[in-house]
User: What shape does this take?
Amino acid sequence: MKVLTLKQPWATLIAEGLKEYEFRSWKTNYRGKVLIHAGLGFDSKDLKRFASLGYEFPQGQIIAIVQIDDCIKIDDEFNKYLNSLNNIAYGNKDREGYAWKLSHVKKIKPIPLKGKLGLWNYDYEEK
Assistant: This one.
């Protein structure tokens, strides 16, 4: 199965269903299930911002499975939409690149694993 590694707190926000778009500088044509891997890296400023939510922010683990439904080129109109959608997850800022639309979020039993860049493969059977 495909895997996407993200820094914390973003991986947890996706796993908890608070973030339905992941932002990348590159476009993907892939549609389907993807494992969400919480990498070893983290954004310390953003981690502090979300600490009050009471979530754990594990690192070096696959923590969820989602589905990529779409890949949208971000323009001014889409930025306005995101800024109005969910101020907790997206804040109020301008983004560039692509927004990957995620759905069908399901947390899974954590799998300790070193991550990789890009979309990578891991032998996983959904239960």
Observations:
- The chain has one domain: 2-117.
